[in-house]
Amino acid sequence: MYAMNFDITIGPFRLTTLESVVVTRSVENLADTATITLPGAVCSYAPELETMLGEGDPVCIRLGYDARGQELPVEFEGFVSRIGREEGAVKIRCEDGIYRFRRDLKNAVLASVSVKELLEHVLRELGGLELSCDYDFKYDRFAIYETTGFDVLKKVQEETRANIYLRGTTLHVHPQYAETGRRVICDSAVNIERSDLRYREAGKQKLIVAVEGTDAKGRTVKVTRGTPGGDKFTLKLPGVSDRTTLERRAEEELHIRDYTGYEGSFTGWLVPRIEPADVVELRDADHEYRTGKYYVVAVETTFSAEGGSRKTTIGKKLG
Asked: Are strands 33-38 and 231-237 parallel, antiparallel or unpaired?
């Protein structure tokens, strides 16, 4: 039988006690996060703990089954963002490498700027980082005013739905579904403990996407795609008036929302390892026609005395 184990370091310290860890990773969130909860008995030492540890300390979380003495896989690497007492326990909240972007930027107004040019501007100011960007999106005007690099990334991510992440010293910006990770097989009879999946068919739910941009004079430029009379989704992109950019954004949203296959989430164990952008092949012997490959949007990994689990949320069917 496999034994659960953890190896967590914060700054120069290695934890010897733990109540729980929750790691949340998603292509739809700018930063991956982790919450480390220490037992209530540690609360009496909280003042000393907060003196020893501080915001910005590096964090490495390894979790898994250590029955064979192998090195545990890394679940999260990042930095402490906050330490405090909550509900009778000590909680250490952490962010991944995007934490490095929480620095103030100089005020600037960039005219007729692409996402790539905008982020190159931000990285030049922050220093020490490179960019890998293949997202084609253009702003008529982008104002940087009393804000941080993190806030700029957040705005870009919300408006473009780009997959933004930091790997080493390189900031990656790519369209969703453009990059995929490993292929993982999940079977309802083998390694799925609980399922909240629902099966849907394309075309049965009418959809219409309206994307509204504004030009330099504040006038609205609107593009609509989809089936009239369907459920309507409206996206607002201030500072974007390029019709091609707006049309591409509307088509992307329809492409993401309209497909035949499963939607929702399922929960399994720590094995197999699943990460955002992986491709999960869902198998169901009772409904073989529903077997298919899906893009992983988000994974929430939980580790405690009750066990280890992964809640996986899927996106569009890929095949």
From this structure: unpaired
In whole angstroms, how far apart are CA 261 and each of 218, 256, 291? 41, 12, 9
The pLDDT > 70 percentage for the chain reads: 94
Which residues 6+ apart lie within 8 Å of 27 measured at CB? 163, 176, 276, 277, 297, 298
Considering the entire predicted model, what is its pTM? 0.84
Query: Tokens 């733990």 label which residue?
Result: 18
In this structure, which amino acid lies at residue 100? R
| Cβ atoms 164, 171 nearer than 8 A | yes
- Label residue 43 by pLDDT band (50, 70, 90): low
Whether 1 shows a pLDDT value over 60: the answer reads no
Which residues contact residue 318 at a Cβ distance below 8 angstroms, ignoring those fewer than 6 apart?
A: 177, 180, 279, 292, 293, 294, 295
**Stretch among 13-17, 154-158, 217-221 having the lowest mean pLDDT:** 217-221
Cβ contact 102:148 at 8 Å: yes
| The pair of three-digit structure tokens given for residue 278, joined into one six-digit string | 């992986």
Instruction: Report whether 240 contacts 250 (CB < 8 A).
Output: no
CA distance 261 to 249: 23
Q: Considering the chain, what is the average pLDDT of its residues?
A: 88
Which residues 6+ apart lie within 8 Å of 306 measured at CB?
Answer: none
Where is pLDDT greater, at 184 or 211?
Answer: 184
Q: What is the dihedral of CA 165, 169, 174, 178, to 10 degrees?
A: -90
Asked if 301 and 240 count as a contact pair (C-beta separation under 8 A), the reply is: no
Per DSSP, the three-state class of 143 is strand
Angle 179-61-12 (CA atoms, 0-180°, nearest 5)?
130
* Torsion sign across C-alpha atoms 119, 120, 123, 124: negative
Instruction: Write out pLDDT tens, residues 156-205.
Output: 998 888 889 888 889 999 988 888 899 999 998 899 999 999 887 766 66
**Looking at this protein, which amino acid is placed at residue 200?**
R
Report the C-alpha gap between 99 and 225 in whole angstroms. Answer: 36
CB 57 within 8 A of CB 83: no
